[in-house]
């Protein structure tokens, strides 16, 4: 049984933390868990839910503007391009809607969606520019689709599920697959430029790549289920550096802020700051649960959500916690998972015989897998309690 210990000095230094429970601007309830992240366009927030629907919500009031229902869960973060909003669904299709009224413009069908395992929480989120949308699918393909009419331009086959978001950089598309290979593909014709195979590990030999990479200053950064974070040359795919975290997957896409990388880990329950040039660790802080969502930098704080139902704001230089919000479901159900010392409670096994039940208990905490966005001093995110939150910072 794994135990999570919180050092006493981290508890006693929280005197200056701003707790945001009274700063909730609004909450919007959907009918199932939310893992995808919101985007904001003007006064409207768009977000998908496990209830098969994409929602357009007034960002100021939390009132529904329109909703569009698909045939599967929407754990894909939307993309706004011109006047259309694009997103993927677990029904295996990519949708393009009129952003003003939610009317369907076109739908593109893949060869079928699938889920790798119970920790495969996200679908690929589309990326796009000019007249092309790039999107991955559980059928193993990376697709390039005409953004106006939904017609296929080309497709590139990997040997695994593609739930990572494709990243456009210069003339290429960068994406990882559950086959443990990271691909660089020419964006015009879908031909392979280079590929990189992750190292793998004893229990996860494929080294599956689950989420998007960060591509910055000619370097590609991404994490893997083989416990590594990798930095590759964007032009050649050769390694710059890698760091192995011996106790957990690295699912979260790293962010770059002031020449440092920031990301959380899975079962190591650690949040990292490291130098992007060489991977040297600046500092780490413990967290009580996994971090899958991408962090966000704002006013010299780094904001990120955790599976225990909390969003934290920490100082980018020191990791000191300055702000925290806890969902109501987390407060209500916290001691079903943890004891008062912050350890897993007696009898709770994260990966025991009934690991599916354990996972449901964790998700009952209002887990934050959604990556937050901040607009005009308001932070917005979704939760596994099915709620979209808007909180004043």
Any overview of this molecule?
- The chain has 393 residues and is mostly beta strands.
- The protein has a domain at 1-30 and 245-393: Lipocalin.
- It is 5% helix and 41% strand.
- The protein is built from three helices and 33 strands.
- The chain has helices at residues 8-12, 328-333, 355-363; strands spanning 18-19, 24-29, 39-41, 44-48, 53-58, 64-69, 79-81, 84-88, 93-98, 104-109, 127-129, 132-136, 141-146, 152-157, 167-169, 172-176, 181-186, 192-197, 214-216, 219-223, 228-233, 239-244, 255-257, 260-264, 270-275, 281-286, 296-298, 301-305, 310-315, 321-326, 373-375, 378-382, 387-392.
- The strands form eight sheets. Strands 1-30-29-28-27 form a five-stranded mixed β-sheet. A four-stranded antiparallel β-sheet has the order 2-33-32-31, with no helix packed on it.
- Strand 29 and strand 30 form a beta hairpin.
- The radius of gyration is 20 Å and the shape is globular.
- It starts with 7 loop residues before the first helix and ends with a strand.
- 47% of the residues are buried.
